[in-house]
Amino acid sequence: MSRSDGGIRCHGLTKTYAGGGGVRGVSFTAAPGRVTGLLGPNGSGKTTCLKVVLGLAGHDEGTATIDGTPYSQLTSPTRAVGACLDVAGFPPQHTATTVLRSLAVRSRVPAERVEEVLGEVELADVGRRRIGQFSLGMVQRLRVAAALLARPHHLVLDEPLNGLDPMGIQWLRGLVRRHAEAGGSVLLSTHLLTEAQLTVDDVVILHGGQVLAQAPLPTLVESGPMGAASLESVFFALVERGAAPPGRGVDGAPRPGTPMTNGGVR
Ligand SMILES: Nc1ncnc2c1ncn2[C@@H]1O[C@H](COP(=O)(O)OP(=O)(O)OP(=O)(O)O)[C@@H](O)[C@H]1O
C-alpha cells in the first residue's frame, strides 16, 4: 500500500441495477484519521457505494478499495474493515451474545472478545436478552458491536445514528472520533444533517447516483448561500442546484451549473 492508497476509496465507481438505478462515476476518499459522512437523499446511492466497498455487491466500472486493495482480495477483511449494514439483519429470537459469538467464530475472533465488545457498546447488562426485545437504539449499538468485533482498522457504518437517543448519539460521536484518532478511516452514511455536522470531518454528498460535492466540512459549510451556513442549508442548496432535469436519471453527463466537485465546491 502506498500512502496515497490509504483509507477507503471509490474511483469512477459505476453500478447500474436492472431497474436503472445505481451510481455513476462516483469517486471519493474516506481518509485515515478522518470521519467521512456520506450524505444524500433517499435513493441517492449511499448504500450501493457501501455495499460495493464491502464486496456485498458487484459493480460495472471503476474501483473500490480498502488501503489500496479490493475487499475481495483482502487477506484479513474483517480486521481491515468492520461494518454492519443491515438494520433488520439480527434474528429477533437470538441474544446479542449468541449473535456476536457466531460472528466471532466466522471471523476467527477469540470468544472473550464478545463480552469485551458488549461492554464497549454499553450492552453488557443485556447481552443475554433476546434481540426482539431490544429498542432500535440497542440494535444500533449491537450493529456497532458487530462492526468493532474483530478490532478493525477502518469502519463503515450505514445510518448508525438512526434510533439513537441524544446520549447514544453523543456516545457514537465519541466512538467514531476515537477510532479516527487511532488512525482508522470512518465512513458513515446518514440522513441526519444536524448530527452529521457535529460528527464528521469530511463530507461527500450524493444525489441521483453521482457526487455533487465533497470537501472538508468547514470548507463546504463556508461555501453556503449565506457563507458560514449550516450543513443543512448547504445540502439543500446543492441538491436543488444538482437535481436531475425531468427525464434524466443516472446519466453521468455533467450539467451546466451542477456543483460537481472533487475536494471543494465550485
Ligand atoms: N437491489 C436493487 N435492485 C434494484 N435497484 C436498486 C437496488 N438497490 C438499490 N437500487 C436503486 O439504486 C438507487 C440507489 O439506491 P441506494 O439504496 O444505494 O440509495 P440510498 O442513498 O442508500 O437510499 P436510502 O437513503 O433510501 O437508503 C435507487 O434508485 C434504488 O432504487
TrEMBL record:
Is ATP-binding one of the keywords?
Answer: yes
Q: Signal peptide position in this chain?
A: none
Domain ABC transporter span(s) in chain numbering:
8-233
What SUPFAM superfamilies would the database entry show? P-loop containing nucleoside triphosphate hydrolases
Give the span(s) annotated as Disordered.
246-266
Q: Gene3D superfamilies of this UniProt entry?
A: P-loop containing nucleotide triphosphate hydrolases
| Domain of life of the source | Bacteria
Pfam families per UniProt: ABC_tran
GO MF annotation list = ATP binding; ATP hydrolysis activity
Identify the InterPro entries for this entry: AAA+_ATPase, ABC_transporter-like_ATP-bd, P-loop_NTPase
Q: Quick check: keyword Nucleotide-binding in the entry?
A: yes
Q: Alphabetically list the UniProt keywords.
A: ATP-binding, Nucleotide-binding, Transport
Its family remark reads: Belongs to the ABC transporter superfamily.
Q: Which PANTHER family match?
A: ABC TRANSPORTER, ATP-BINDING PROTEIN
Query: What name appears for this protein in its UniProt entry?
Result: ABC transporter
Q: Which organism is it from?
A: Cellulomonas uda
